Structures are given as C-alpha cells and as structure tokens.
Amino acid sequence: MATQITDANFEETVLKSSLPVLVDFWAEWCGPCKLIGPVVDEIATELEGKAVVGKLNVDDNPKVSVDFGIRSIPTLLIFKNGELVDRHVGVAAKDVILKKLQAHM
User: Fold this and answer.
1) How confident is the model at residue 95 (pLDDT cuts 50, 70, 90)?
2) How, if at all, do strands 75-80 and 3-4 pair?
3) Which residues are catalytic, by number?
4) Per DSSP, which regions of 1-105 are E strands?
C-alpha cells in the first residue's frame, strides 16, 4: 500500500529519503486517478524497502502541489536524493512507471 504524503510530511518522507521516491498526485474526483491508483499501490508493495511510493491528495495538500507546478492529475513525480528527477503526467501502464522508477534505483 502506498504511503500517504501530505504538505506536513513531504519534506521528511520525500526530500530526506535515502531511497528513490515516487509520488502520485491525485484527487478523489479524478477518474484517471482512480485508474492509476491501484497500479501505484501494486508498485508500492513490489518495491517495499527499495523505494518509497506514496500518494498526495492535491485537494487536501495544496502547498506541495503548487510548489511543483501540478496542473493536471494524475501526475507522477520521481525524486532521488531530494531532487526531482522525472515527471509523468496522465495515466501510464505499470511497466512504464516501473521502468521510470527503476532507472533511479
């Protein structure tokens, strides 16, 4: 299961992580987000201990969403050593997401 990421825990969970981090920016009302959500949860389970995989609800956490210019959801951001290293906007197949994340592991 993906970690819940918020404005309050973003710095600690994402920017200070020693592991690569995948953040799924989503909202409850977003249809495409509901398609990709289970995929993100599967990846979180598969890569447990190798990467941090989390979800950030843009409606509940506007600060981080604004800070990273999230204008469309779902948006997936990948961080390594506290730096943004990759971005994907829209729905993607599991293998595409895994390939992008594994490139930074």
Assistant:
1) very high
2) unpaired
3) 30, 33
4) 3-4, 21-26, 52-57, 75-80, 83-89
CA-closest candidate to residue 13, choices 3, 2, 26: 3
**Which amino acid is present at 6?**
T
- CB of 64 within 8 A of CB of 9? no
pTM check: above 0.90: yes
Give the chain's mean pLDDT: 97
Report the Cα 50 to chain-centroid distance in Å.
15
CATH of domain 3-102: 3.40.30.10
Residue 18 carries which DSSP code?
S
Residue pair 38/47 in contact (Cβ under 8 Å)? The answer is no
Q: Which residues of 51-83 are buried (b: 16+ CB within 10 A; e: fewer)?
A: bbbbbbbbeebeebbeebebeebbbbbbbbeee
Tokens of 2: 């993906």
